[in-house]
Amino acid sequence: MRYINILPIAMLCALCTACSSDNDDRDMQPPVISTDGIVANPVDCQVYHRGDTIPFAYVFTDDHELGNFQIEVHSNADHHNHAGAAGACQFDEDSEPVNPWHYNPDTPFTIPEGLKHYEARMLIAIPDSVDTGDYHFSIRLYDRVGWSAHLPISIKIAE
Amino acid sequence: MFATLLAASLSLCAAGDTTITLHAVTVSSQRQHDVQMRSSQASVQVGADYLQDHFAGSLMQTLEAIPGVKAMSIGSGQSKPAIRGLGFNRIVVSEDGIKHEGQQWGADHGLEVDQFAVDRAEVVKGPAALLYGSDAIGGVLNLYTNHIPTSALEGTARLFCRSNNAQLGLSAKVGGCHGRFFYRANATLIDYGDYRVPTDSIEYYSYYVRLPNRRLRNTAGLERDGSVMVGYAGYRFHADIRVSDSYSHSGFFADAHGMEVRLSKIDYNRSSRDIDVPSQWVNHFNVLGHASWHTARFAADGRVAYQRNVREEHSEPVAHGYMPRPSGTLERRFVKDTWSGNAFVRWQPSGQHELQAGVCGEWQRNRRGGWGFVMPDFDAWSGGVYAMEQYRPTQALMLQAGMRCDVARTHILSYTDWYATPVAGTSVYMQRSADLCRRFSSMTWSAGMAYSLGEWVVKANAGKSFRVPIPKELGADGINYHVFRYEQGNAALDPEECYQLDAAVYYNGRRLAIRVEPYASYFPNYIYLSPTLEGVEGLQLYRYTQASVGRCGIEAAADWHVDSHWTAQLAAEWLYARQQSGPMRGYTLPFSTPWSVRPGIRYSYVWHGEGYVGLDADIVGRQSEIVPPEKPTASHWTLNATAGKHIPLPRGMLHLTLQAENLLNRRYYDHTSYYRLIDVPEPGFGVSFMLGWEF
């Protein structure tokens, strides 16, 4: 009987050795999109005009290393999304989009390697001919490992 | 006897039901020792009595009491099996010896099996490619619905209900034999309302979603199953044919389906029992023919099956990205036809040797429809041959070894968007999936031993298993609404391989039974859906990659029959996984099962028939081993009670089973639930009840 017990014990020991190579400098936290220390743009319920430029400004942080970020803008004319967070904006009446603005660059914006803190600033031009109404401005931030943060913002485009 | 016991241990390519029907074995059975000596692999068999006494709302929740088995909750109260932390297409679910095709195909619907038709179940833990071929990398769940009636008329009628989602079900089973001919028929109807959770709101995708009446809106559904079987059971020859159909229709939690929280015009709070869009229906139709012939030293067995899986997902048509508003609600439709067959011969030249050889083949065709694309059309076929030998030099020692060869071919058809996307100033109908033809082949093996000494049985097994990449992994290009990400296939994937070392030690004493089952495995090229730093259609892009992965774990269980009334049980499991290469090196695998311990006591009595009451606790550890997009899950414990009574009637027996879950109404999260990602807690206090009349 004593011999019988050796097998599982030996196997367990082998398992424990095989499995105890933990390295805990792993990135286990998603990055953060914040407005700390800057005047961030755009923010919920802001109104822009056709032909305007959105002075995009946000602060990105991560405890290990930032990766890429993406910006996407699409029409929210039928209000298919954005059930209100606290203090929802006043939406226009539902409508069918005719020439909605769709801003969706093919490749993500890169952040220089090795950064834990980055202030993203850029100018995004709103075309002259697009539909007015409610839009959805979405910021998506990834860290080097693939953890992500998402900030959806409701904006309005007026004449 | 020896031959028949061996016969019973082999199932898919080798269902041994023609020679023996002594399968109603539970964990505490005296036959346990013999069962353990049948194979060098760890397996647990549960019979009809166990399934009835442990009825917990669904078959998977019932089987979850087995250490190493987990019901992965996929929403709407439905769950999928996972064995030792691996699920979906890494385990095989077989029904009467044929691989069930509904399982490996979609991640977001239940078992598609009439759980009340199941007579017994067997869980094979660990890789079992030798007998089951591709996919059996994590284990096998064998469901048997082919019990042969022994009287002219017998059957069971069951009524069951569950408080959480106001579920009501009816199931009836009849069968009979006339001479050597027999028949069986089964029908089940289930209807349930919206699923209730102990919270008033959840946070989804940086929004708070309110849950009026603490219900997950639009998770109601229904299920209808039926089957008919006729057969001939002679002394040497057996043949049967079974036709079954399983249909379910259910809603998806409206706020957690789709790319963003939707401000829908539908009044989801109107009724807790209606099914609005988004919703799905799934149908699994199966025809299975089986024949076998045996003599004292020789047996031959063959089966052929046709399965048709249909699934439709309906959503509110909305424009998104460059896609204009589609005309109907049919977002996705899949129709898959599968023809499969297998046969084996078994020969016992002497009392010590037994040889078995078999062939398996399968052909599949999948066609899609609807305005949303996620998985391409495909045609696929696969085939395998294997041979194995069992050798018993003495009564106490069993050695077994085998080899298997498989080939597979997958043809993925191209798919082009039905709407145009502007690219560099022009409009382009984007191709999402290219025409692709891949061939795969694999050689696998397994070798092991079982040794018995008095009340002890020791087993060890080493083996290689494999898995052919499924078309979704090769050619997916779309949104997985249930994990909220955009998934992209990788046409260059190789077959996934796994080397595993298993051991098991069993002690079967008069009052005490102990099982300890450790394992370690290595995947040189685990197919992993890895996060990228890109986004598509408003969701993060995940792409299939391959990484080497090491896994290990242990399961243990003890049953102590204190006296004729009291029984104490203790079950525990732990597992560990690490990616050893690739972009997520050093991280675990998704949905890693945390450690758990389950102590329980049970009091049995005899008073106008047998009865019992039991209490058990479920203690689950914290899981901080996570990969994107998961969150750590806190430890938790719950108390559950169970009671049952069997009342003899002039004709037959009345069975009553009562299960009370989460007695203290604690709020907790299950790390392996799909709803964990959107912070939906597990159900609070709830009761399920079953009344059965067996005649």
Provide structural commentary.
The complex is a heterodimer of chains A (159) and B (695). Chain A is mainly beta. The longest helix of chain A is centred in the N-terminal third of the chain and has 18 residues. Chain B contains 6 helices and 40 strands. Chain B starts with a helix and ends with a strand. In chain B, the strands form 7 sheets. Chain B has a 22-stranded antiparallel barrel. In chain B, strands 1-7-8-5-6 form a 5-stranded mixed sheet. A 3-stranded antiparallel sheet of chain B has the order 2-3-4. Chain B is globular, with a radius of gyration of 25 Å. Chain B is 5% helix and 56% strand. In chain B, a hairpin with a 3-residue loop joins strand 16 and strand 17. In chain B, 52% of the residues are buried. Chain B has 695 residues and is mainly beta. At the A-B interface, helix 1, strand 4, strand 7 and strand 8 of A face strand 14, strand 29, strand 32, strand 33 and strand 34 of B.
